[in-house]
Amino acid sequence: MKKNLSKSLVGLMMLGVASLQVNAQAFKYPFFQHYTQASCGPCAAQNPGFQTAILNANPTTVHHMAVHTSWPGVDPMYSANPTIADDLVTYYNITGVPSVVLQGNFKQGGPSAFQQADVDAVIAQTSPIRVDVSHVVNGMMRTVTVVVTNASTNTFSNNYTLRTAVIERNVNYTSAPGNNGETFFPNVLRELLPNSAGDVISIPAPGATLTMTYPYTLDVSWVDTEIEELAWVQDDATKEVLNSGASFDVGVNASINPPAVITQNVVANTTTTFALSTGNLSPNVNDFDYALTSTAPGNWTASYNVNGTNYTANTTISIPGNTNFPTDIVVVPGATAGIGEYTLTITATGNPLVPAMIVKVYVISGVGTLLINNSGGLGDGTTAGDASNWQQVYMDGLAFANCTDYAIANEKFCARAIKDNAMTGINKIFYNVGWTFPGLTDDLVAQLSTFLDNGGRLFIAGQDIGWEAFDGGAQYSTQAKMDFYNNYLHANYVGDGSTNANVAFNLNTNDVIFGGTTSTTLKNFYGGTYFFPDDITAMGIGAVTAYYGAGTTKPGGVRSWNNINKTVYFPPGMEMVTSVAVKDQIVKLSYDWFNDLISVEEYDAAMAKLGQAYPNPANGNVFIPITNAFANSSIQVTDITGRVVLTQSTNGQTTVELNVAALNAGYYTYRIVSGNTATNALPLEIVK
Question: Taken in order 668, 674, 675, 681, is the CA torsion positive or negative?
């Protein structure tokens, strides 16, 4: 439903890691653009939680701007300056509220979709530029000065856009101005300088600055003591925000130049080093507190080295002005398999208000299987968190499969690990999407394609993966997602599956993996009316593994094997499957097939069975019974030399009629083939 809370707008996009990270040095402020409305009921439900979890928890480390829209009702904060709000709504293709955009293209979703991990992830990127904002007050007139500094060694060839906003930090009404009951509104957008389009700028040379000034007049309806300015530099082609700055910022002098590769995969007891640099951006000497923390297994060890001195505990280091020190993070994984996340934090000594600089690196050791939880927000936006809320379903299934070498991460980590060539020894991914958005991004499908092309195995389950790729409109659908869905999952999206709610879920009885599993039902795991497991069909070499309801007319799962990779795709999320035993079996049997514990020959033999041709011997027409033929398959007849002498499509028939009158008398064999997959051959004799 347009311009109201629905699955088409909430939990929108968690996009790839920002592109400009090489030689980045400045603190990167997470910048939230928050689309809301004083007459929006879901806004009143979700905004207070966002204020508590994000704004109040990060008073000096995040930037936030509230953009009040024209719908769904009355809102004087929109009416005060409708043009700027309308322009931004169009720029980001906002179709409903509440919706929050982080860093332009890093993540977009309902307020409840955001967590502290999102804030930390943006800060850990650092930025190649620094944005400083100040103002001079002259009665009702103000002059804003924005200084953009190239804090890196990068040279930028493209132009970018500088936008500067006037915001009212705290807007309080004695009675609700709309009909949703809200009376407090933080960081309300009042004006854009010089206008909504901003100014096109060139990033200055390394170490140089660019200064822009903007005069404006305060409106008499604003509380002047609450008025501040916030500026950001943006790539309009990708919408990525390189960095932002505000007139109320506390200066950050620490700098980090992160390593180009942040993920490494090594065997136990092998030392691995991440080379970076840390420093002081100010012209004066400063003291900084260094700390290295981790989530690694207990028998792993780590240290950090700054300017040639090694440290294993927190320490204070004095750094001269405008100086960088070579810095290493050194990790030695122990015998326990897992993923270690290491965070190096640098803070200004004695000044806790100054935001901390952080860099994160990751070490993988001894892992053979990744359990990936999608980090997008829930589809209805009412519950904070991500797919990790139901990761236990997969953990139980992997335990049932006796898998002891799995580790848990999110889809961003997975994409980065593949990109960093850190997947050594990992050939299985179980991707828990459930009902989160988006299940796939262009960056993720590119990395998963690389993983599968190198012989990987992928299990993926979630109720709107197909809907998102094909029906999600400009916010979701891309050609890259559609191609991945068709060409790697070997599935065809039919529709949103509104009739698949609370129906039987029957595993294909002809499937050697899932056919022995007891049938079950699907349940509305999320409540409300949001229960739409996709309608699909198999494509190409895809084979149906399950059905919705009674009979075999509505496929509810597809698997594929092309002699290189294997995929298993279920449109309902595993959390929707009612029977615990069936959930365990689905995960276990997929795991076993991925590990070739169930051979492809056994699997494919069950997927397509040939009956005995009749008459046999024959000299005219021959009838061949078929059970559960492969998608896009054919009957292939070969002579005793192995030469193919006759091919005919099965066309989905249960009995195929062949005319063999033109063949010479002799002995032949026949089989079903589809791509690189074929059944065992049976004998056929031709007589004259």
Answer: negative
